[in-house]
Model the fold of this input.
Amino acid sequence: MPRKASVFIVEFKFELESCPLGVVIPLEESKNKLASVKPLVDLTRPDMERVNQLILSKAGSDVQMIPEVANHLISSGGKRLRPMLTLASASMFGYEGDNHIKLATSVEFMHTATLLHDDVVDESDLRRGKSTARTIWGNQASVLVGDFLLGQAFRMMVDVGSLDALDVLSTAASVIAEGEVLQLSVAKNMETTEDDYLQVIRAKTAALFAAAAEVGPIVAKTDKATRSALKSYGMNLGLAFQLVDDVLDYGGKSADLGKNTGDDFREGKITLPVILSYRRGTQDERAFWRNAIEKGESSDENLEKALGLITKYNGLGDTIGRATHYGTIARDALAPLPQSPWKDALLEVIDFCIERLN
Done:
């Protein structure tokens, strides 16, 4: 058993007796300057300007409602991390063409489409601090504009002319849809296991991170080992990213999270902090979770009780430990790659994803 270590991730401070994944962040490391996506933003800025122009162009349509709905979400913020991964993973190997611009735009359109669809499925009213498209234009328009963006994404993939890149991104689209359906199949089922949940987020979230990072080395014509390394980086970065989101829902701020704090609980979503707290709870505490999640008894009073149980059973601390574990795997995946500012920026993104808890 590892020695007791103080874990400090911004507002959250936990004492972990042990971590089954063997990864914790020592308190001393918290004194370092917080990580940032700024190095990646600075490196990709010229290409991201081209991506943004292509986004505006390809989101256009003679059907007036399509650009209105699309631009509502596209202009609402977000760091556009996924397309930056595509740009960086191509440029770090000296690629100088235009295909990474098209693929990065495709990745962003895929992400935007999934958000439009997610908000309908989840009946969400807030996204990135703004009313969701479904609350303004309705569910039908949100779904159909999402479909339009997916169609535009695939048209750009075809323009690139790489069957390998098309295969990676089309496979990701299928996997994301499978993840959505899998989430529906386990929705509000408190017997959902940690493995079940990881399978959901691996498909729903991490698959697009992995694809975004893999198509860059494809257009740069690198070897299969390099492709595999970037894919592993993206997959594990995506897992860490989602697990931190799970923590933020119970301990973050709406402005930072892009939705209302506690929305996962109110919507009856089963995330890792809930799973861990349920598994470790007493019979009465498990009954509370079943009533709250399965029967929809998600009042503010019950949210406070849920927070108390999650704290009691270290649901947030252990979720952070798992996120850090996947961040370490992402870091290790890049180890064989040559040193460069691009590599340094991608490594800092890992730390940033964890330190979003600031």
The chain has a mean pLDDT of 87.
